[in-house]
Amino acid sequence: MSTEEPIQPQDATREDTSMQDIPTSHGDGAGGGDAGKAPRKRPRLDLAVDSRERKRGKTMFGLVLGTLNRAKNEDKARNASDAAKKRQLIEQRLQDKLKKETDSVRRAEEAKKDKTSANRKEEELQLKDSIHKLRRTRLPLLANFLSTSDQIPSEEDISSSPPPSTNPLAPIPRTHPPPVFYLPAILLPGQEAFLKRRKAEVKEAAEKEWISFRDERKAGIEEITNLRRRVAEEEDRKKTEQPQHNPEHTENTNTASDVKMDDDEALAQDKTEATTTVSSTIKPDNKEEPTTATSDQPSAKDMDVDDDGARTDGSKTLESDSTKGSTSAVVPPPSGEAPPASERKEEPTLMQADEDDAVEY
């Protein structure tokens, strides 16, 4: 309780001051309306700032400018480096390639549309040509006949000139029963005049229609020719753009062929080395055989042995030496095949040779 007692007078003083301020503010607002409406003045900058704070602001501003300038310089150096130049060159090539592909695709689509349009217009023109040719030949022939739907003027109206028909080439109106063309053996004066007038009108109208269509056909042929020429130019451009021999492909094939040739040469060299090593290992044995045979073996004159026996003994010794020196020199015949006739003949001679005739090493 002792701690709360000094707090109360402070609160009371605050309430008193607030109560005193409120009426004064109301009085000012009520009494001085003009003063309340006056605009507030902008606060002036205090130029009398401490020099330390001004230096600090300048330092911060200088640091910011230095950072920005350093980033700008680094960006310039990065763009000026070789890697950046290569990157820009690659990007430019990609952009050019993309633009070229886009243009080629667009031209291909336009050529496809032109080709389709040319085919469609050609078909329409052929159909119109056949129709107009048929009308030019058939309508004047039908004008020589009367139809049940014709309104032939009477004899009284022959003297008065009838009004010309608006469309002499108009199709015959369909009725039930359908109209029938006929030609009497003897024509009445009204019928004869009607046929004569209609023949002239139909012939003149058919010629006018054919002339107008001929001009239209000429313009259509020119348009179709232009479309087909553009399609042909696009196809020629595609053929010229396609490389006949791809340099990368040829370079790769040349490299592959060079590598293959090097491998073949290395393989051939290895084979030759292997053959030389095998021959070097076999040649000393072959060279020693005649020397040992001449030194240790007695001559055929000293030995009372026939030539056939000497031949068989020599072949036997050579065969034994060759089997001892290298196993690859003797190739046994397959199990399923019979030995040759020469070997079958030599076997009994080898068995008949005496042990005294054999050469000892």
TrEMBL record:
What biological-process GO terms show up in the record? mRNA processing; RNA splicing
Per UniProt, the ranges with Basic and acidic residues bias are 44-53, 71-88, 205-221, 230-251, 299-322
One Pfam family name from the record? Pinin_SDK_memA
Which locations, inside or outside the cell, does it occupy?
Answer: Nucleus
Give the UniProt keywords, A-Z: mRNA processing, mRNA splicing, Nucleus, Transcription, Transcription regulation
- The segments labelled Disordered in the record are 1-61, 69-88, 94-126, 150-174, 205-361
Q: Which GO terms describe its cellular component?
A: catalytic step 2 spliceosome
Q: Where is the Pinin/SDK/MemA protein domain?
A: 52-150
Q: Where is the composition biased (Polar residues)?
A: 274-283
Enumerate the InterPro entries for this protein: Pinin, Pinin_SDK_MemA
Stretches of Pro residues bias are at 161-174
Main localisation: nucleus
Task: Say which family it is in.
Answer: Belongs to the pinin family.
The protein's name:
Pinin/SDK/MemA protein domain-containing protein
- Per the UniProt record, the source organism is Meripilus lineatus
